[in-house]
Amino acid sequence: MRFMMIVKATTDSEAGVMPSQELLDAMLRYNEELAKAGVLLAADGLQPSSSGIRISYPEPGGKPKVVDGPFTEAKEIIAGFTLIEVKSREEAIEWAMRMPDPHGEGKARLN
């Protein structure tokens, strides 16, 4: 089963401010643990939404429309993710609970 742990964007991440060295080191250790356990598929930070594009289809079968970021109307912008493949939902939750807190306000969101 694949699970994605999503790190929400913050004002700092949207401004391109890098996390502290302490957090980067903690995430590196965590990702190494995931890799050693053989469950890590991918992990990365994403560019701020100001660097992004959105492609929408205004009407079914219509021509796609490209919209440049930033996307201030989005309620939840993603700053990064970790994708794991594990045997169960319970195992995914165990790994998610060990993830370093990227914002100091709770754990990463598991989807």
Which SSEs are present, and which pair or pack?
Blueprint: E1 2-8, H1 11-14, H2 21-37, E2 40-45, E3 53-56, E4 65-68, E5 78-85, H3 89-98, E6 109-110
Antiparallel strand pairs: 1-5, 1-6, 2-5, 3-4
Give a quick rundown of the structure.
The chain has 111 residues and is α+β, with helices and mostly antiparallel strands.
Structure, described:
The chain is 28% helix and 28% strand. With 111 residues, it is an alpha+beta fold. The strands form 2 sheets. It has a 4-stranded antiparallel beta sheet with strand order 2-5-1-6, covered by helices on one side. The protein is globular, with a radius of gyration of 16 Å. It starts with a strand and ends with a strand.
- The secondary-structure element order is EHHEEEEHE
Strand order of the largest sheet: 2-5-1-6
Number of helices: 3
Count every beta strand, where a strand is a DSSP E run of 2 or more residues.
6
Give start-end ranges of low-pLDDT stretches.
none
Radius of gyration: 16 Å
- The average pLDDT value, as a whole number, equals 88
Report the principal-axis shape: globular
Helix content: 25-40%
Biggest sheet, in brief?
A: 4 strands, antiparallel
Strand content: 25-35%
Which structural class best describes the helix and strand composition?
alpha+beta
| Gap from first CA to last CA | 12 Å
